[in-house]
Predict the structure.
Amino acid sequence: MSETILEIEHLSKEFKEKKSSQVVKAVSDISFSLRKGETLSLVGESGCGKTTLGRCIVRGIESTAGHVYFYGSGARKVDFLTLKSRAYKEVRPDIQMIFQDPYSSLNPRMTVFDIISEPLRAMKRFSKQDIEDRVKNIARKTGLNVSYLKRYPHSFSGGQRQRIGIARALVTEPKIIVCDEAVSALDVSIQAQIINLLKDLQEEFNVTYLFISHDLSVVEHISDRVAVMYLGEIIELANTNDLYERPMHPYTEALLSAVPKANPDLKTNRKVLTGEVPNPANRPSGCHFHPRCAYRTEKCEHVAPTLTEIEDGRSVSCHYANELKLQGVFQ
Ligand code: SF4
């Protein structure tokens, strides 16, 4: 599971606010890589830039700077963001996305068959029969009855619609899927079914997931690694167990303290996050988290920490990462 499939390097996305003309750094100089077959989750509060980052990676929106290197067949490395016409069409089927809202992400005027087959038709590589066989096959694997293919999205429940979205993303047999809040709009019991389905499909297709979510209790069940984002930057990146057991950034600790405990008798000192996420157009000086941090010092107000590898496979952006003894969820 150590082979790199995608390398994000210094990726940034800036917007200009219409009213004030201020520059908003939605994604700021982000670098990390994805390994073949793993699930890396991006977590953080609403507005932290995780969805913007996901969209930049799949070229749903244009990045301001940076690279997204994809390792294709024969470990050929290409910058996905700069690929043009033919080269882009060749690589595009390998990088797919599952959207947040199964209600609005499916075209209500298209049948389920047309929705799922659309990416295959765009590839212009397959015969009509091939397309039909592939769509039926992926429908079965995602738990959709083949008889549903003639119907329209409105006749399905939220969970079934998300299965249609998953089938559409998987039908080209991609190497990477960006799942943008893929289960957030679903009931808890349906969430569990979709998570299990995603895990099964990952095992079968050896697909890599970049799983974007604000919900740390969901992320725990699907991720190999977790990257925590705050104000457009990654502030902690670690293996899931390490991060949940022993967070090293105060923001991670605060997010984890809000996760419901499996054992309600476990006593914890809940670190309630105070204040709102600051305006990304006017980020606080020094450590951007300092106005909300219970451990801040004067240094934090003036000097910005950088994301630094503290242990093997673990990076943290905090001046005191090695000194603070923070609380995880399993303690
Ligand atoms: Fe808190 Fe300071 Fe660490 Fe920022 S650098 S997270 S303000 S202790």
User: Anything to note?
Assistant: Residues 249-316 form one domain. The mean pLDDT is 92. The pocket of iron/sulfur cluster is lined by residues 249-250, 287, 289-290, 293, 295-296, 300, 305, 318-320 (CB under 6 Å).
